[in-house]
Amino acid sequence: MKKTLEFKAHDGEIEDIALGPDNKVVTAGRDFQCCVWQQDQLVTGLRWHENLPGIPDKAYRYQACRDSGTFLGLGTVTGSVAIHIAFSLQRLYYVKEAHGIVVTDVAFVPESRPGQELLGGHEAALLSVAVDSRCKLHLLPARRSLPVWLLLLLCAGLIVAAILLLQLAFPGFL
Q1: Tens of pLDDT along 94-121?
Q2: Domain count of the chain?
Q3: CB burial class (10 A; 0-12, 13-18, 19+) of residue 139?
């Protein structure tokens, strides 16, 4: 094995590291940050005071991370579990103190046939393991979205309404 890249990712120890799609790397460090890297460039990151205002940095720390490609699963030293969108780090799911103490690892249920049985109609399933000797399954509900045909129908309705309003405001417009 040969080292191909070296850079400073965190101040202090790195608690966990996960490989993501498109050669991205996710790191969770003792400096209270979780970072997404492309080579040695920081793509985006999470800090407690930005992500969860009102909760002091020193009270929480990211402990475990996994990137499924679409989602980033995180566990903390206080037992909390979160799921974020991988590319934007928008939080979709959060359970404060899901475990009594440190979450030591998280893993997404694979989207294989047996994994689909656990998923049911949910968008993702994350397993968390903690020092409290418990393993918990966290299900991310499917996000609702409008069907494309309904969106097109709404747009057509808005265009017709705009034309009618312009015709009323400016007779002879058409």
Answers
A1: 998 899 889 999 999 887 777 777 788 8
A2: 2
A3: middle
